[in-house]
Design brief:
By secondary structure, this protein is mostly helical. Helix content is about 55%, strand content about 0%. The protein contains three helices and no strands. The radius of gyration is 17 Å and the shape is elongated. It starts with 5 loop residues before the first helix and ends with a helix.
Amino acid sequence: MDWIPVRLRVVLLCAVFALVAWNISTTELPNPSDPLAMGCGEELAFDYEPSGFTFLDQVVRIFNVFLAQAAPS
């Protein structure tokens, strides 16, 4: 990796983080007041209350579902 300039590595890292942030921001969260959306049987690792910040809520929900799926059965 010595042949890749440091600036190019920084640009590529920033591009990856931008793509991840864009992907998270386009994730649609179900409306908590909709019983059909919340009654699907989706497993969650922990309960949380929405903070009101959409991006933070999306990150917490994605992480929560990931932890529930990664937990041993």
